[in-house]
From TrEMBL:
Keywords: Metal-binding, Repeat, Transferase, Ubl conjugation pathway, Zinc, Zinc-finger. Gene3D superfamilies: 1.20.120.1750. It comes from the Eukaryota. Its cofactor is Zn(2+). PANTHER family: RBR FAMILY RING FINGER AND IBR DOMAIN-CONTAINING. The lineage of its organism: Eukaryota, Viridiplantae, Streptophyta, Embryophyta, Tracheophyta. It catalyses: [E2 ubiquitin-conjugating enzyme]-S-ubiquitinyl-L-cysteine + [acceptor protein]-L-lysine = [E2 ubiquitin-conjugating enzyme]-L-cysteine + [acceptor protein]-N(6)-ubiquitinyl-L-lysine. Its EC number is 2.3.2.31. One of its GO terms (molecular function) is zinc ion binding. This is RBR-type E3 ubiquitin transferase. Residues 1-165 form the RING-type domain. GO terms for biological process: protein ubiquitination.
Amino acid sequence: MAIHCNSICNYQTVRLLLSAWDPLVSARFDHLLMESYIDDNDLACWCPSNPPCGHAIRVGFRSDPYCEVECVCEIQFCFNCLSNVHSPCTCYIWRMWVKRCEVEGQNTGWIEANTKVCPGCGNAVIKAGGCNHMTCRCGQTFCWLCGGPTSKSHGLEGHSCNSFTKAELMGPTSQDFFRYKHYYVRYRCHNDSLEMETLLKQSLQNKKCPLPFSLCPHPTGRPTRDENWVLVGIQKLLLSRRFLTYTYPFAFYMFGDFLAGNDLPNKDIRQNLFEAQQQQLECCVEKLAMELERDFDQVTPGEVADMRLRVIGLSSTLDNYCRNMYECIEEELLPYLGQTAFIARYNSSGPDKATEISCVEGSSLINCMK
């Protein structure tokens, strides 16, 4: 610019001049311009994929930041905290759960393999010698093999534990650990199922039709367009399984004594209602999983119509269960966690999918209208 020049050189002019001078410098200018836009815009963020895909997500004008989106690279994440989608957990609850799992998760397996629970005080006991007659620091004696209480004077005489019996674990002093273990085991179990069902979806997507077209009859005899009802059912299974998975860390903190200001009235009643809904959802998820994990090559034409109706019916039921449970969490539980406790709105089709609206060298801007 010349001194005292009143003209304004906008970025379009800069790009034009740089393109004529050096295309590489022009590309670098575009990238820096994009970074500046993303960093200064509360409604835009970079996709947190690793390795980075180079895309940025922009949600609609005045959109709620507590939303879940899917980039064109198929990574799904929370727009507010940039972590994996985690509804119905709030961002704060999810961060606490991840942090605790990093500490406790590695210890859980070791404790399971190397300790026993004292039937008197509930503390974990490590075996230091070869004798199976254990004495806890609380004075309680028990059998290392089965964990049952024994007599102090007679050791293991008259104590039989060679047959399998189901024992109830006690321990008020270790209640926190065993409570965490209860929720963690179920969280991990459903998370593992989610990973395997994701692989099932990928294998089915490699086929033109999960079932042969001739096995998808229409009641009127005309060709049907819903031959992909299996894939639709798989998608609903994945969404419901993920929702169910994250209800366990939510319940761990919601009904525990960890959150500051968590003064939840009638906690036992609310927890019972929550767990009843959770159990309904869990049973329906497993029913749909059993239907979709069948060997479709062995399905006969006569079985397809009934199977299709069951899958569609279970998918609809799951959508209702998830929606009702979500409304219960949002209206009956979250208000007691404070004014900053928000979760992404429920979407029966999953996170909002982004669409590409513009592209520059090395990065692109993705639009996700709300």
